[in-house]
Amino acid sequence: MKSLYILLILPFFWACNTKQKVDLIVTNAKVYTVNNDFEIVEALAIKDGKFVAVGTSKTIVKNYNSTNTVDAHGKALYPGLIDAHCHFYGLGLAEQKIRLEGTQSFTEVVQRIVDFQNEKNLPFITGRGWDQNDWSIKEFPTKDTLDILFPNTPVAVRRVDGHAMLINQAAMDLANINENSFVEGGEFIKKNGKLTGVILDNAMDLVWNVQPKPTKSEMIMGLKDAEKICFNLGLTTVDDAGLSKQTIELIDSLHTTGDLKMRVYAMVSVSQENLDYYIAKGIIKTDRLNVRSFKVYGDGALGSRGATMRKSYNDRENHFGALIYKPKRYEEIATQIAASDYQMNTHAIGDSTNHYLTTIYKRSLKGQTNRRWRIEHAQIISPEDFDAFDNIIPSVQPTHATSDMYWAEERVGSDRIKGGYAYKDLLNKHGKIALGTDFPVEKVSPFLTFYAATARQDLEAYPKDGYQMENALTREETLKGMTIWAAYSNFEEHEKGSIEVGKLADFIILDQDIMEVELPKIPNSKVIATYLAGEKVN
Questions:
Q1: pLDDT tens profile 375-416
Q2: Stretch 455-478: mean pLDDT, rounded?
Q3: Which end of the chain has fewer CB atoms surrounding its CB within 10 Å, N or C?
Q4: Could you tell me what percent of the chain has a pLDDT over 70?
């Protein structure tokens, strides 16, 4: 009888032990895999930081067991979101400075500076976020008030786009700026022949060179603050558009110690020193860090009239903006990068810049395939230049359209604006489009990105029928742009961007399904949980 009992229970014992032990099981979810067929499944299993199975809850539970299981209660689950163009480190540093976003007048800007300085009492006041286009008087401010309030303390506060800066006389004196100052690729705004205190693009370097540099502890704090913000909003990879060697090495060291977990696609700030160093070193790739691209600036921003246009700005006679470098320098940079394994990612706003850079790209990459060079922003495109994006990746930020729509047409006119923020046209030419925010220029939330791309409206549902709706993206296109297409733009589509067996287990669970909920509700989406490599990080 004992032998018979053993024979009877052995099949049950074997059945129980055929289940594979995994680290995490999630069931009863609505899983958007974003695979080639855009399949929706119910459950997944994770081991060693990767997906080992996706399918029905019944199948997963039957074949896998874990001491860590999550019942999603029908909530929507997506691949971890990727911000294809942002300033992750810059966001963290901004948390330590004056925040001027949302100010409705220069008076409010001044009051925030005064309040901040009363609390901090710093030897050099810095901050970011003002935008004269949000004020009733839509003109650049002047330094006069700051000169009176802070006669001995330098003040340097950047415009929201980061391409213009207001400085007071104390900062000018420290940086040796005067009415005869000149910087290639920069501008010193004057009024009646006198410096106003507003400087653009490369002119800001004179101030960067004299203002205090963040300490290592401040750098670490900034990175960790930015990580917390991003994890809370469902971002699991950030493409940081312009990092120094020092910052990249700090990120790598924090990854090694486990003090920083965010995956970072690092675009190296272009300089001859950085070009020579990283090209000689080759691609740097870990699970958390990917260094294989250079960030190049083509021009300034449209909001500060630094973007380079083929014809004069509509609202500033005989003004065309300016390239950051001399034309020959872009050819030298492109030639050097084209001879390496690195990617070239160039900020291009104006139609002249986009025309010139895409021409250089084509010439430099002649005969090469799968290089995935990117145009960052691709903001104003001439009709004949869309075709250039057949093998150049457009990396765009949908909230720029809904932020700029109030004044962009005034800058470029009714004809040129038709080629502005033309995301659907760019997608149709390339077949893929990478989506980001450019934070802290815009807000961090990827749900604002999703809303702006699909509804083409601001948070007040303006305009009623959407802004240039012929260039709205579908929800599926938008989700792909924030996941698998963004991963593709980083050469990472085989390891992330979709929920498939063998890929990194980065995913998020939301309180509502952004693929089905009414469009106006999307910005209010909340992240229930963010997982990185199967580990819950918020």
A1: 999 999 999 999 999 999 999 999 999 999 999 999 999 999
A2: 97
A3: N
A4: 97
User: What's the pLDDT band for 7 if we cut at 50, 70, 90?
Assistant: very low
Contacts 24+ apart (CB under 8 A), 340-344: 340/279, 341/282, 341/283, 341/292, 342/278, 342/279, 342/283, 342/292, 342/293, 342/294, 343/292, 343/293, 343/294, 343/371, 343/372, 343/373, 343/374, 343/491, 344/293, 344/294, 344/296, 344/373, 344/374
Q: What is the rounded distance in angstroms from the CA atom of residue 355 to the CA atom of residue 346?
A: 12
How far, CA to CA in Å, does 478 sit from each of 3, 461, 474, 483? 62, 19, 6, 9
| 275/249 Cα distance (integer angstroms) | 16
Q: What is the CATH number of domain 97-208?
A: 3.10.310.70
Q: How far is CA 402 from the centre of its chain?
A: 16
Contact 514, 31 (CB under 8 A): no
- SS3 annotation, 194-205: EEEEEEEEHHHH
In the chain the first and final C-alpha atoms are separated, in Å, by 55
Q: Does the pLDDT value for residue 438 go beyond 50? A: yes
Q: Dump strand ranges (E) for 478-538.
A: 507-510, 527-532, 535-536
The arrangement of secondary structure in 82-87+214-536, i.e. its CATH architecture, is: Alpha-Beta Barrel (3.20)
H-run or E-run covering 362:
helix 351-364
Looking at residue 14, what is its pLDDT? 47
C-alpha separations of 17 from 11, 32, 63, 272 in Å:
10, 30, 10, 60
Which of the given ranges, 5-9, 134-138, 251-255, has the highest pLDDT on average? 251-255
Q: Do residues 89 and 226 touch, judged by C-beta distance below 8 A?
A: yes
Distance CA 24, CA 43 (A): 11
The SS3 call for residue 50 is strand
Q: Strand 30-32 vs strand 40-41: parallel, antiparallel, or unpaired?
A: antiparallel
Distance from the Cα of residue 347 to its chain's centroid: 12
Does pLDDT of 194 surpass 60? yes
Quick check: 521 pLDDT over 80?
A: yes
Strand residues in 10-49 grouped as ranges (E): 20-21, 24-27, 30-32, 40-41, 43-47
- Please check whether the domain covering 18-74 is classified as CATH 1.20.120.1200: no
In tens, the pLDDT along 31-76 reads: 999 999 999 999 999 999 999 999 999 999 999 999 999 999 999 9
Q: What are the extents of the domains in the chain?
A: 18-74, 82-87+214-536, 97-208
Q: 161: exposed, middle or buried (C-beta count within 10 Å: 0-12, 13-18, 19+)? A: buried
